[in-house]
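Running this now, will post back.
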Amino acid sequence: MTIDNPEAGEADLAERFRTFIRAADFPCVGAKSALSRDKMRILIARDLASAWDDLRIVPELTRLAADYRHTPELFQTLVVIFEQPDVMAEAVFERFLWERVQSLSDKDALWYGSPADTRVSDDPEDPHFSLSFGGEAFFVVGLHPGASRPARRFERPVLVFNLHDQFEQLRAQNRYEKLRGSILDRDLALAGSINPMLARHGDTSEAAQYSGRQVGPEWQCPYAGRGGGAGGNDDETLRDVA
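Update: finished.
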């Protein structure tokens, strides 16, 4: 399922991302399943560093959450591909990622009035941390041109929003460890090493995994919780759309 505009450039960018996922050596079999089942929604946005498209992105997240509650099928995901910036260091991408996540979370809580998913924590220091949109927990996978891990290296910045409950479904079906093992093996074959940032939900906070940058125990997540950064991000949105 694609939510991009009919403009040829955006359609081409969406198709290049699908080609990236279809590549034989791409390690995430979950993403491959979402694409093959037509459960991967793709939205083309303007700039990761801008709030310009926040009011397009949040409704798509809440729609995905509502659709999932109605039909809780596995491997549903929303992919937001940003046209800019096309070159950045990992630390810069990480900063922009958390700025967008903060802004989107603030709008979901304060503009749209969506509740948080009480099955997870809004505290990025908590081992049970996840984001919430439309009342459902999500985690984010970031990709960008400057990523050190090849599985995270795409020509434009990308935020992939995955529903957390899907992994609880996989655990309940005793399929999670097999899927995780397959991804780790494939990532090892692609990169020559296993991503050192990967961890199971509940063992440590997933926040450090979002950007793909390797960080140490001293790293502090800049996320201030739902509504914690609303003022500045709202001003940015009004400035961008004026």
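Confidence is low (pLDDT under 50) at residues 231-242. More later if anyone needs it.
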